[in-house]
Amino acid sequence: MNEEIMKEDTGTHDPSLPESPETPLKETVSTFRLVATLAVAGALAGLLIVLVNQHTKPIIDKYKAEQLKIAVYEVLPGVERYSTYYLVNDRLSLNIPEGNKDSDYRRIYVGYDILDEVSGIAISRGESGFQDVVQIIFGFNPTTGKLSGMKVLDSKETPGLGDKIFKDMAFVKQFFAGPETPLIGVKIGAGKGKPNEIDTITGATISSKVVIDIINHALEEWRPVIDRGIPKAPVVSKFEETKQ
Q1: pLDDT digits (tens, 9 = 90+) for 189-207
Q2: Residue numbers of the domain that contains 103
Q3: pTM exceeds cut of 0.70
Q4: Residue 204 belongs to a domain
């Protein structure tokens, strides 16, 4: 009998049966708590973005303004100063209507020589390229219609191919050689010697033709406005930029 009691107390164990694993306790997470956490994290991230933007935007804008100034003098070689003109009611103006932002108006940059005569005009324009928008600035003489230079301000064209529009100096120098307008893009060696021909870049024909199209389209748009007259800019003006 004692043996039967001991068997009941100790029980029996079949080693062929697997042991039952302990079941972990599941913690119930409140849906409200989860949503609140995400909302707070999103708000903090948004605030951080705003603060960073407020800090960096003036710096970026100042840098862009300085680069634009350099570019204007680059595409208008020989000018002593330039003034910014805005398109207001289809005419050029040194001023914009009171209460408006200058960023709402298209503009051009008129360069003056040492005798304070108009020496050239710089125009900035962007159009879609092979990959993204190509932004350039170019200078031309409104009297002769000839170009005086071209500079790519922004481009995300394919590295090694499309980026040749600003890395291939043979292509870039053509715009500083005084070609007549409107421009015509031709394959290298296929030109007829016309004064308005621009050799396109082998392997980057689309990107190089985009540059040519931007210039032609900009002149189509601005020449009628310029022909209506350029108001004389005072020698000293807050709209004026001079070499330093």
Answers
A1: 999 999 999 999 998 899 9
A2: 55-242
A3: yes
A4: yes
